[in-house]
Amino acid sequence: MNEPGSESWGPYLLILAGAVVGVAVIFLVDPRWGGFTLGAVLMIAAALRFAGYGGQLAIRSKRVDVTIMGLGGFGVVLTSLILGNDALKAMILNLLGG
Predict the structure, then answer these.
(1) pLDDT for 27-44, tens place per residue?
(2) DSSP of 35-77, one letter per residue?
(3) Rg (CA), the chain
(4) What is the DSSP letter of 2?
(5) Residue 44: its pLDDT value, please?
(6) By C-alpha distance, which of 72, 51, 43, 52 is closest to 8?
(7) Are 8 and 2 within 8 A, CB to CB?
């Protein structure tokens, strides 16, 4: 059992490593794939936080953490998919009335 005052790192290092890989992919391979990787890592972090593996990922309440990380990850994945797809860009602009 954890002693009072000790911090549990939980999956924090796994998420940090995934974010480093995502940034490396952005700079070395392709921004679309790197963005997709970063978004996926954020959604994995949200799923881990939802499952109770908080550790250093637990900053606010569970509900707020999961919502922000999940929506942020979805937004980054969606943006990375839009980067290289003109037809998808046009469809989204049509939906938004632009």
Answers:
(1) 999 888 999 999 999 999
(2) HHHHHHHHHHHHHHHHTT--GGG-SS-HHHHHHHHHHHHHHHH
(3) 16
(4) P
(5) 93
(6) 52
(7) yes
